[in-house]
From TrEMBL:
GO terms for biological process: double-strand break repair. Belongs to the SMC family. SbcC subfamily. It holds the Pfam family AAA_23. Heterodimer of SbcC and SbcD. Residues 254-449, 510-576 form a coiled coil. Keywords: Coiled coil. This is Nuclease SbcCD subunit C. The lineage of its organism: Bacteria, Bacillati, Bacillota, Clostridia, Eubacteriales. Residues 5-222 form the Rad50/SbcC-type AAA domain. InterPro entries: P-loop_NTPase, Rad50/SbcC_AAA. It comes from Faecalibacterium gallinarum. GO terms for molecular function: ATP hydrolysis activity.
Length: 921
């Protein structure tokens, strides 16, 4: 199935009528559904699902909520129409949901019912909602839930499926693959095991209940033994023998009673037949008397009918004369209609001639008016012949002044920037110079102090046992004290290095300030060069900033003047263009009017000639007609026809009445003859005596029936007891083996076998589906992850006490390790869930019989991918969309807008609704 065209009217966020022509997207490849959040991107798939199945793609909601709250008017209908291609044939389905809208007639909201139509390729139209849905399911081979799983990849749902625990994943697959039948099998096995155990407990009680129901007559020699059985004192092995003896005795007595009842029934039937025959004869005698009286009455009616028939036939000549006159008048009726048509044509020609003459006068006046306007426009256009050249020169002058203004502005900014940088460089130099001077002064002071206090400094470094650098002694009993504030030789060297570094920084700052000064002077020279040759107004200021301000003001004034001149020149050029266009247009119209005037004059002459010929034909026709008009002629015709019909109807009624009476008389005579034949030789019977004898026989039959029913009740009760005891005894023998077998099956099916992995029957089936999904998913996941990752089902459960079988982990081929699926990054999780979703779609499609769904939608998730991951995902989706499959990505990621040329762009309007447009390239 591939969508060709989708039309939405007041549906969801789409306020107006939106039509999406999917053929513009081609037969295969990727396209993007993009737009603002909440604009209605996913609604496109909802609309396709609603058109096909009468429900949207999400959770079921009431149809009334499909009506757009932004609908442009109350009269606008809410509907979805989808044209799709299936197996090379085109179908169109249209659905209207149930919704409320305001009625101007009643002044309140009224409910508009849901409707659905399906147009098939052979022209057949299906109109009922349920029948349309059934036909769609028959065509596509899948229901709505399967369509969603195959055609819509909702990223959030499949990320949940990827990261779910085994129990949650089991619930999801249960809904998708509808494995309730296997869970039902598990439950039935458990229930059967429990039932067998209960049956085992109740078998002995059942045998006792059967024994308590043994029936036996009080006068039977077996009555004492039967009472012992009912009390539960007779062994089970003797119960069957007792019951067989009781049954044999009752069956013999029942046979004798049956023979007596048969003889009695035969006697009753013979007597009942004689009574019934006499009743029928009495009825026939009454019917014979009635038929003889009816014959006398019909003979009198027949004589009167023959007289009426003769009188009616006497007027046949009068009827034939009226029919002849009516035929002649009817033949002349078209001449009356033709006369009225001639009169109407005469009136029409007169009106046409008057209108033509009036129109001709108007055309002549219009031609003269346009000629005057043409002359005036020529006079106005004469002085504007060079207006376009003037406009071009004014435009060039404006561009030159604007360019000078831009150059001066740039030069001024450069000069200002250079002056600022010069001030910063000079300040930095002054700071660096001051720091270098301060470092030199500190170095000179410490150097002087160091030379003055050399002994103290040497004494400060003496250590006991180490030779003195002056005398070589190892003992230092009285070293000189170190000077206050003196530094060591290393510290003095550090001060010298600091002074040299500060001097170097000051030198660099001086060089930078010098360079900045040179650049500033060059920028100032460039600024003065730009200000040269400007139009002077008054004395030129001495300072450069004031010169720049004045120059900019002069350039702004010149630019404004040039813009004003361009505007005026443009207005003159535009007026020249308008006048030239009008002159050309009016010249064409004047020529057209000239032709129309000539044609109008010829047409008026033609109409006048037609009017004269029509008047002559009308006068000739009126000479042949007798009646003033057609209605009068038709009235005379109707009068003659009605008179003839009245005579003919009277004749037909007289004939029919005579025939009816003759037939009734013949019928009465036949009945009399038949009844006389039946009653010939029959003697009357005494019915009262016969009925009394039949009542006596009936009473005896009731007595025998009561006795027989009593015996039958005992037979039924005792047979049931015998059969029940025998059956339950046999069941008791076979129950132990069956209970053992069923209990083992139940424990296996529910995964309750001790020490084994807890995998029930339904989970085993779900594992099979899961493995098929993973095989399909890994074809794509390996491609998208560059061969690194593969999804795997965990073979062994970590806890034998928990239900298991659907745990998921990822195999990393780069290091050969298996790890939890939740360790994947966000982008990797997206690729894994996308692969899982596509694998699920493949399995569901195959499970549905390999149905052909040539359109797929993928909803969001691409925003978490880096550039390389996005590239791999896109390459996989491009392969997925090859052949004859069209894949739509629902996303607002900017990178996808640059990668995918074919797009459906959904935008929100200022009025609150949304619009959708297909953009290709």
């Amino acid at each position: 199935m591939r969508p060709l065209k989708l039309t939405l009217s007041a549906f969801g966020p789409y306020a107006g009528l939106e039509t999406l022509d999917f053929t513009l997207l081609g037969d295969s490849g990727l396209y993007l559904i993009t737009g603002d959040t909440g604009a209605g991107k996913s609604t496109i798939f909802d609309a396709i699902t609603f058109a096909l199945y009468g429900k949207d793609s999400g959770k079921d909601r009431r149809e009334r909520s499909f009506r757009s709250m932004y609908a442009e008017s109350d009269s606008q209908e809410t509907f979805v129409e989808l044209t799709f291609l299936h197996q090379g044939r085109e179908y169109t389905v249209r659905r209207q949901p149930e919704y409320e809208r305001f009625s101007k007639r009643s002044g309140k909201n009224t409910l508009k019912g849901a409707e659905a139509t399906l147009l098939c390729p052979d022209g057949t139209i299906i109109t009922k909602k349920t029948q349309v849905t059934e036909k769609i399911v028959e065509l596509l081979g899948i229901n709505r839930d399967q369509f969603k799983q195959i055609a819509m990849i909702a990223q959030g749902d499949f990320l949940e499926l990827l990261q779910a625990e085994s129990d949650r994943r089991r619930e999801i697959f249960q809904k998708i693959f509808d494995t309730r039948i296997y869970a039902r099998a598990q439950k039935l096995l458990g229930e059967e095991a429990a039932r067998l155990m209960d049956q085992q407990k109740s078998l002995q009680g059942g045998i006792a209940r059967y024994a308590a129901g043994v029936q036996c007559p009080d006068d039977s020699p077996l009555a004492e033994q039967a009472a012992l059985a009912r009390a539960g004192g007779l062994p089970t092995s003797q119960l069957a023998g007792l019951l067989e003896q009781l049954l044999t005795a009752d069956e013999g007595e029942k046979t004798a009673l049956t023979e007596q009842q048969a003889e009695l029934t035969q006697a009753m039937n013979e007597l009942a037949g004689q009574i019934s025959l006499e009743q029928e004869r009495q009825k026939s005698r009454q019917e014979l008397a009635a038929a003889q009286g009816r014959k006398i009455t019909l003979e009198a009616e027949q004589a009167a009918a023959r007289q009426t028939q003769a009188a009616a036939r006497a007027r046949q000549g009068e009827m034939e004369q009226l029919q002849k006159e009516a035929a002649a008048l009817e033949h002349q009726l078209p001449d009356y209609d033709r006369r009225e048509e001639y009169r109407r044509q005469a009136r029409t020609r007169a009106e046409d001639l008057a209108r033509a003459q009036k129109g001709l006068a108007g055309l002549k006046a219009q031609r003269e008016q346009l000629a005057a306007l043409y002359t005036a426009a020529q006079a106005e256009a004469e002085p504007l012949q060079n207006a376009e050249a003037d406009r071009v020169r004014a435009e060039q002058a404006l561009k030159e002044w604007q360019a000078r203004q831009e150059r001066l502005t740039a030069a001024g900014k450069n000069w200002q920037t250079g002056a600022r940088l010069l001030r910063q460089a000079q300040a930095a130099y002054q700071q660096a110079e001051a720091e270098a001077k301060q470092a030199l002064e500190e170095y000179d002071r410490q150097s002087t102090l160091y030379r003055q206090e050399k002994a103290g400094l040497l004494a400060r470094d003496l250590k006991e046992g180490a030779p003195c650098p002056v005398c070589g002694s190892l003992h230092h009993p009285n070293p000189a004290p170190p000077p206050a504030g003196a530094v060591s030789e290393e510290e003095l060297e550090g001060l010298r290095a600091g002074w040299e570094a500060a001097s170097a920084r000051a030198q660099k700052a001086a060089e930078a300030a010098s360079a900045a000064k040179g650049r500033a002077e060059q920028q100032a020279a460039a600024l003065r060069e730009e200000m040269a040759n400007l139009p002077a107004e008054g004395p030129v200021p001495e300072a450069l900033p004031e010169q720049l301000t004045a120059a900019l003001a002069r350039l702004a004034a010149e630019t404004q003047a040039a813009a004003q001149a361009l505007q005026e020149a443009g207005q003159r050029a535009q007026r020249q263009t308008e006048l030239n266009a009008k002159l050309t247009q009016w010249a064409e119209k004047i020529e057209t009017l000239r032709t129309r005037v000539e044609n109008g004059e010829r047409y008026c002459i033609q109409l006048a000639e037609q009017e004269k010929a029509g008047a002559a034909a009308l006068a000739q026709l009126e000479e042949t007609l007798s009646w003033p008009d057609g209605p009068a002629a038709r009235a005379a015709l109707a009068e003659k026809q009605n008179a003839a019909k009245a005579i003919q109807s009277a004749m037909e009624r007289a004939d029919q009445n005579a025939q009816r009476i003759a037939a009734a008389l013949a019928g009465a005579e036949g009945v009399i003859h038949s009844l006389e034949s039946q009653l010939a030789g029959a003697e009357p019977m005494d019915l009262e005596s016969a009925r009394a004898r039949w009542a006596q026989l009936k009473s005896r039959q009731a007595e025998l029936t009561a006795q027989s029913e009593e015996i039958s009740a005992r037979l039924i009760q005792n047979r049931a007891a015998l059969e029940g005891i025998q059956n339950q005894s046999a069941q008791a023998a076979a129950l132990a083996d069956r209970l053992q077998m069923v209990k083992g099956l139940a424990d296996t099916a529910t995964g309750s076998v001790s020490g084994k992995e807890k995998v029930d029957f339904e989970t085993y089936i779900l594992r099979s589906y899961f493995d098929r999904i993973l095989r399909q998913a890994n074809h794509r996941f390996l491609e998208m992850s560059g061969g690194q990752y593969e999804l795997c089902r965990r073979e062994k459960s970590e806890d034998l006490r928990r239900a298991s079988g659907l745990e998921l982990e990822v195999l990393d081929h780069y290091n050969g390790t298996r790890r939890d699926i939740k360790t994947l990054s966000g982008g990797e999780s997206f690729l894994a869930s996308l692969s899982l979703a596509l694998g699920l779609a493949d399995v569901v499609q195959a499970a549905a019989g390999g149905v052909q769904i040539q359109a797929m939608f993928i909803d969001e998730g691409f925003g978490t991918l880096d550039e390389e991951t996005l590239r791999l995902a896109m390459e996989s989706l491009i392969r997925l969309s090859s052949g004859d499959r069209l894949v739509g990505i629902i996303s607002h990621v900017a990178e996808l807008k640059n990668r995918i040329e074919k797009q459906i762009v959904v935008t929100k309007t200022r009025s609150g609704g949304s619009r959708a447009e297909i953009v290709c390239g």
